[in-house]
Amino acid sequence: MFSPGMHMDTDRLISDDSAEDSMVEMVQITPKLIAQDQASNAEKTMIPPELLSYEPENYRIGPNDALFITVWDHPELTTPGGPQQTEAANARVVRDDGTLFYPFVGNVEVAGLTLEELREIITKRLARYIEQPQVDVNVLGYNSQKIDISGAFVNPGFLPVDSTQLTLLQAVGLAQIDQQRADLSNLVLVRDGVTYTLDYDRLSSNDSRIGQIYLRAGDKLHMGLNDNRKIFVMGEVSAPEAIPYRTSRMTLTEVLGSVGGPLPTSASGKDVYVIRGVENLATDKATVFQLNAKSPSAFILANQFEMQPQDVVFVGAAEITRWNRFISQLFPSANILRTSVLINEDIGSNDN
What range(s) does the Polysaccharide export protein N-terminal domain occupy (predicted)? Predict the structure, then answer.
C-alpha cells in the first residue's frame, strides 16, 4: 500500500510497456546529456554573418536635416541672419522632398548625398560667382534617420543616426536595459524585413563578436519581456515559488538555491525532477529530467544543467516522509473512533 504524499511514479514513466502511450519521456541527467546541451547552447553564440559583414558608410543627408554651410570670407552667405544669430538660427533645413535652396546655387537634390558630395556641388556652382570659394558643410540636426528602440528598455523610443558609427552594444547602453523586466535571451534586430533573434545574455558574456555589429538607419531593436517567463519550484523545498526567468543561463543549482534548497528532513535524495512541457502533447512528448542527488557528481551536474522558461522543478518526498504523513492522517481518524468508543462505554456504565 502506498502512503499519501507528493511522489512521482518513475517506474511507470520508464516502463517499456507504457512508453508509446505515455505523454512524457524520462531522461536521466548525466554528463553525456550535459555535453549535448552545451553543444546546442554553443550555437546560440553564433552571429549571422550578414550582420557582421555590414560596415557603416559615411552619413548621407536626408529630409529635415539641419545643415550649417560655411563659405569662408563671405559672412553674407554663411550667416545671412547676422553674426549675432546662433548657428541653429542660420541653419538650412532640407525640405521634405529632399531638396535644399542655397544662394547662387539654387535648388539641389541633397537627399542621399554625403557631406563631401554636397560640399563639392556647392563649391563648383559658387565658383561661377566667387573666386576659389572655400566651403564647409556640417550637420547641426540629425532628423532624417532613426533607429527604433522598443521593449524592456528604460529609454525606449528613437535613436537618431548621425555621423558616428553606432554599434548594437552602444545602442543598448544608451537605451538602458530594464533589468527587472528584460528577457536577455531575446534581443530582436529587424533589418530590411528580416528578423534576427540574438541571445544578448550569452553573446555579451562570452568571447563573441557582438561588439562588431553596427546598426544602420531603419533598424528596429526590441528587447523581449520576461513577464510571463518563470520557473516553478514545488515539492519538498523550503519555499515553493515561481521564479522570474531573466537570463538564458539559470542552472538547476541556482533555482534550488533561490528557494532554500531541498528540505533536509523530508526530501528524497534521488527524486529531483525537471518537468519540461511541449506546446502540443498530441504530437510531442513532454520531458522529465531526473537528477539523483545522492550521486557524488550530482552537484556538478546540477550546476551545469541549464533551465528553460516554464520548467517545473519538483523535489519528491523521502519514503519515511510519506509514511509519517500517512500516520499523521491516520491518527486523527483513529482518535475520533477511540473517543466515540469511550463515550459509548461511559454511557453504558451510567445506565447500569
Answer: 55-139
The total number of residues shown for the chain amounts to: 352
Q: Which one, of 158, 233, 248, lies nearest residue 202 by Cα?
A: 248
- Provide the CA 286 distance to its chain's centre, in angstroms: 24
* DSSP code string of 170-235: HHHHHH-B-TTTEEEEEEEEEETTEEEEE-HHHHHHTT-SGGGPBP-TT-EEEEEE-TT-EEEEEE
Task: Specify the range with the lowest mean pLDDT, choosing from 9-18, 64-73, 128-137, 215-224.
Answer: 9-18
Which cell is 4 given? 499519501
pLDDT tens digit sequence for 270-279: 789 998 887 7
How far is it, in rounded angstroms, from Cα 133 to Cα 135? 6
Query: Three-class SS of residue 64?
Result: coil
Candidates 145, 148, 200; CA nearest to 169 is: 200
Closest-CA residue to 248 (of 205, 296, 210, 207):
205
Residues 72-98 have pLDDT tens digits of 999 999 888 777 778 888 899 999 999
DSSP result, 283-321: TS-EEEEEE-TTSTTHHHHHHH-B--TT-EEEEEEPHHH
The amino acid at residue 167 is: T
CA 91 – CA 100 distance, rounded (Å): 11
Q: How many angstroms separate the CA atoms of 36 and 53, rounded?
A: 30
Residue ranges of alpha helices (H) inside 112-151 are 115-126
d(CA 242, CA 247): 15
Per-residue cell: 14? 520508464
Cβ pair 198, 169 in contact under 8 A:
no
Residue 250's region, left for phi above 0, alpha for psi from -120 to 50, else beta, is: beta
Return the residue matching grid coordinates 547602453.
173
236, 188 Cβ separation under 8 angstroms: no
